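Milestone M4 deliverable, item 7.
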Amino acid sequence: MRQDSPDSLVPIVHTDPSPAESAAASPGETPPTSQVLIALDTISRQIGTNLVNADVLQTIFRTLTAALSLDYIAVLRFDAMASQASIIAEHPVRLGQTTTLPLEHFGIYQQLQIHSNAVVIDDLQNAADMLGPNQSRFQALNLHAMVVTPLLVQGDLIGGLLLGTGDRRRTITPNDLQVAQTVATQIALSLRTAEFFTEIQRRANQLERIAAFGRLVTGTLDQGQILRHVVEVVPNLIPADQVGVAFYTLDQNRMRLFESTDGITPQETSLTAAGSSVEEVVQHHNPILIVDLATSTYTDHQRLTQKGMQAAIIAPLMVSGRMLGAVMVAHKRVRIYTPTDLTLLQQIGNQIAIALENATIFNTARQRATYEETLSEITTHLQEQSDLRMILQQTMSDFGKVLGASQARVRLQITPSEFDISKLFQPKE
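Output delivered:
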């Protein structure tokens, strides 16, 4: 393994090709400069007129493999948060785009991070220290030598361009390194632009769906229906294997949790609030992002890890400065959530809080109207009765309906000298 700085690379010589240079390259020889220049011009035009995607990269790779007499080219996209690399495109297809490569103990990735220079491996079969946990997959490519050039955007390492050969007579030359650096720079910029464009589209789509979600939850005044909408729709807005809504205020010792895991019918449970993430969110009015639940000390996160969850976000439910509780999402993949997801859940939480507050106000008004209507009916019934015994029975019956009571009792404080109460319940003649 060796590393090469771009400053030390042999530049491509811009001269008119001789007849010998115009001929096709023989095995083990470096391709003619003119052939490389033509390939670079073609690649530049392809990248300049298209946003980089798998199809565009496949076309570029075919051009480059022919120009440099290579056997394999791939673009790796590094995800430091998830600690893994994915294959954006490759030619020919050998590993597949569904393949992920762990970055931990991956020597090539570590060297790219430290030095930001191309990493060359002259003998792939004896590079276990550089390949780490990915040794078997790289060796399955049947390559003898390869170079991985960093994809850098403003100093940020976003991936690597891999060029490889299976010909033992073919080595990675300074000319290969110069070409790889030139192409990698163009791919990195175009790849980042394409990702920004995709992110803008995704964000716009999310905002549209959040607005639709807001209309859905605020379109009903039934709290149970609102909660069902939350557990059903939120996983479509943000990655979630579990969704929960916790009702809690600081004057309470326990919280009421309404949650659904893996799309299963929602369940309601009661949990101790002390030491929980919900208590923290309600107390400080700030959301919490836990990228790895194994490191969390909140009491309610022990339940999540027991269910296989590895990351979580908790956001407050607040209306006009008044806390109702918190909304939370959890996922079985560690480090899946980002600050963008945190902001998104806060926006979702605002919609949920407004819907729940509207439902509470409506139910309170409806209950008040019901009580007033019932009291009016009781008063009417009392005025229609002249018999004291019937008045008392009617009163107990009506109040029992209003209060949902199965039994009722009336005590009268009457002086015996003034009235003999026993006569009240004697049958009428």
